[in-house]
Amino acid sequence: MSGGTVAAVDLGATSGRVILGRVDQRAGTLELGHVARFPNGPVRLASGLHWDLTGLYRDLTRGLADAFRRDPAVASIGVDSWAVDYGLLRGGRLLGEPFHYRDERNEAAVEAVHRVVPFEELYRRNGLQFLPFNTVYQLAAERDAASDGARPGGWLDLADSLLLIPDLIGFQLTGAKVSERTNASTTGLVAVESGEWDDELIERLGFGASVFAPLVSPGESLGGLRAGVAADLGAPAGIEVVAVGSHDTASAVVAVPMRAESAAYISCGTWGLVGVELEHPVTTDAARAANFTNEGGVDGRVRFLHNVMGLWLLSESVRWWERDGEAIDLGGLLAAAASVTASVPVFDANDPRFLAPGDMPGRIAEWCAEHGVAAPASRAEFARSIIESLAEAFAGAVRTASILSGVDVETIHVVGGGALNELLCRRTADRSGIPVLAGPVEATAIGNVLVQARAQGFARGDLESLRALVAAAFAPRRYEPSGR
Ligand code: LFR
Predict the structure, then answer these.
(1) Does residue 160 share a domain with residue 285?
(2) Which residues are the active-site residues?
(3) From the CB of residue 34, how many other CB atoms can be counted at a distance below 10 Å?
(4) Taking the model in full, what pTM does it have?
(5) The ligand 1 atom nearest the CA atom of 83
(6) Each residue of 286-327: pLDDT tens digit?
(7) Please, are residues 395 and 428 in contact by the beta-carbon 8 Å criterion?
(8) Segment (H or E) for 31
(9) What distance in angstroms lies between residue 340's CA and the mean position of ligand 1's atoms?
(10) Domain limits at 359?
(11) For the chain, what is the domain count?
């Protein structure tokens, strides 16, 4: 067989997309075609910040129908999204709209979990950095809401299964209930050493082991589309849904055209995921203190990385400035930021106050006041301050990743939307003193496509062979450090 086409569904922070990917390894080609884009913002209901899963499913199935109209030979479908969020089901029926991880319900839950399992022990077991929205804390919030009735939506006791979002979409498409491993690794409930559900931990936290679905690895098939779905999509019978690196960051890392033994990556979009790829987890005290995570990668690799707040700081500032209807041109704002000559504050981009939606410029000013530095004086200065703070946090995380893992980092690959941000790439190179290679922008979709293509026999080999295809199709842009 010499190549073929697959459909990738990628559900990102502001929009979801359906993308066709055509791969022919023998010819050395990899091409993407954009089919559909639809909104995927959170919805604030009386019970908190939620997904609009039903609307999303309508939009993505319309997108898939378009994909089959364009190319009836599409061989399979793969779905990825951000990590940690889940839906609860009973008898195959969704129990309400899933919570969005930026909802504030987790605050009390963190303490409740650590009272039963101290963070040190959790880290030893699951190898995950502390993020207040990890599924383990969300489930504690869910459980506690159910027991005291204080908050609507706490339905863990009622559920007979729990599926992370891409698995939940896979279930709607095929009827199969599985937990894809890279995403499951972000729940906090998978043992870092064995890669299996940590039943003892699940039991101690009172979550009920029976709700968790069997784990599957990227490349495994969930089975064919349900007959009704295939008819709706205009898809031939037997089209499979394939588990990809369904955690978007796992898919993005597949598509980093790097030599893992001497490179760091920054998957930069809403978040900046900064780290290295390893064969084995690192769960030392130093890794825990630095809050580095060991997330599951495709082909059993380890994504040893740290979450930096990312371009969310900028997009949320822009959203704040636009709240009265003014439209801000992002390109213009970044150009103005690049020409700022005044010195701007470098704030701690990892401060948890920046996590929830809201007045980002106000919070940055508040951080500056608390730390005795002058706040930025204009929008351009805010934008520059955000870029400088991100570049500093990126450079710091690369240094820490290198020290903790022993990887001698010679290049930093920036993939995702952030690869288009010249100022950010340049300043990351400057502040780290290491060359930055930017691109591909569509890393997540490419990783999704490549894992499906390999499952279909359109490509073969290890991640290095897949990355060779990426390197050939998407030449990165190089930024040398300027010494400033
Ligand atoms: C990026 C990402 C990160 C994860 C965060 C929340 O989109 O998936 O890897 O930590 O979103 O799920």
Answers:
(1) no
(2) 248
(3) 12
(4) 0.96
(5) 12
(6) 999 999 999 999 999 999 999 999 999 999 999 999 999 999
(7) yes
(8) strand 29-39
(9) 31
(10) 258-439
(11) 2
